[in-house]
């Protein structure tokens, strides 16, 4: 019998100065000691501590570390039919929403919900051939007895029946993230750091395993962001909001207190007397795998709330673990298919028995009998059986036409295969010949400027039947055909041309001379411009390399400094635990040798980090100055090249203005000049993100901009 799994984690809110007298953490980061509140008020305290055994204490841990420790292996177990719950609770402003969602921060600092959605869709892609997975999403907000559906626009109050919530099917990760952002924007806040309601985000996973018989699972992953609990003396929220938040925690404690006396499969009596919140999460709370994440502040002011928060996790962990309930459901399609297959197999077996006994003598032949005779004939042709079983199955008047049909079918397949191979060889020969001709023409004379369809681009057509002199090309080029579209990776990048990757241009040019050759001719006539441009480019690349090296060094020193600070903090704790707070003869608190060495290392790393930070700032400023100079000089060179082109195409024949004579510029495919201008303005090429992680990051930032990155929506009651 498989038991459910309950794990209890503690995440400590980072503070400037930690209270090391009232709170102590073991070196293994598994046990935390909290001082008894009555002992603090005594005149002669005895330093009595409560001990709480946890599965992990997160102190100065990043989001990725918390996610890997808490959610390890639970995504795949949810696909196997196990219910999972992640419950973040604690006092107000201790980082619960930061741990669960954190949608207003950078992509790498996102919380558990966006990360678990990413892993679910990656699992679906991995198991695409062996499982059919459907993902649904629901997001409910509980405030007292009021329930709101955050995936709907106002008014979004609903009447909840048991654990049946309105769901929205999500076809991809981007759609699920958009729904999460929409729900977060509709959440009720009384202050920027305080929410007065509990939000339950439920991911419904329906998994049909194609490789397992009758393996159809419908499980849930519930992620609970509890409202912060407060004492009556707190002024962060109104009295009504405090009562609603504390009642949600009280109802949760009530369910846990009665959990051992109630059957997990018959929970109507317990949850009917609780609240809509516990009625919704109750089944998962009693029969699923639970991950509790207690959020605390280790300061004397929060001593009593911290003790209360840790007691809840310890009590839940001590409860006897009931049997784990798998959400397995019979799949009617698989049941029907198995019955049909079994029926067909029995019919074939009966027919085979009749044929082997020689009882078949009728002229009417069913489709099953024909299929059986065909299989026997194929076995005979492949020399798996001899003539005797063939003649015992049926009469020669039926077996011979079947063998002839098999022969014709095989011959047609061979002829079709040979024809396809000859066509492929002929196409390869034509392609090779065409490539050789193109290479010969390219080496013998300059290439023609062609458009994307392979034909020479026509810039304009005259409405009159008179021939327009080719000398008028210069006037047309100056007005319409010198348009180019720069292909950049993003709108924020500097338009630099590096030696490794030159910028690409799209030209509409009617001249037969290749534009690149004109640039080369222009630089041969003005070598000082080419030399200066190359020098600017080299300076920009050198400055960029120096800036990146300085930034990498600063980041590395910052990481080393953080590690040194952690070692210094551990040395403080060890000295406090062994020596206590001893004062030396000079009136200064005594330090251990390990503590003094750690302080020296911190001072040295701080100096190195500050100097590297100043160096990174100076190199960045120098890089920006060089980029500005390079862009300015590059623009001046482009203008000079344009003047040079105008001089080359200077004509003696001056045509009237295009607009005055009714002449329109028309391309080879019939588009007018206005259409070409509009398409060139809109068809700016952007480099696609190379990896899936970069695509997810770009879409995540797009959702933040569309929903307001730093906005908090306040709703009055």
Automatic annotation (TrEMBL):
Belongs to the TRAFAC class myosin-kinesin ATPase superfamily. Kinesin family. The keyword Nucleotide-binding applies. One of its GO terms (biological process) is microtubule-based movement. Pfam families: Kinesin (PF00225). This is Kinesin motor domain-containing protein. The keyword Signal does not apply. Residues 435-504 are annotated as: Disordered. It comes from Rhynocoris fuscipes. It comes from the Eukaryota. PANTHER family: KINESIN-RELATED. Residues 460-473, 480-494 have a biased composition (Low complexity). It is found in: Cytoplasm, Cytoskeleton. ATP binds at residues 90-97. Gene3D superfamilies: Kinesin motor domain. Keywords: ATP-binding, Cytoplasm, Cytoskeleton, Motor protein, Nucleotide-binding.
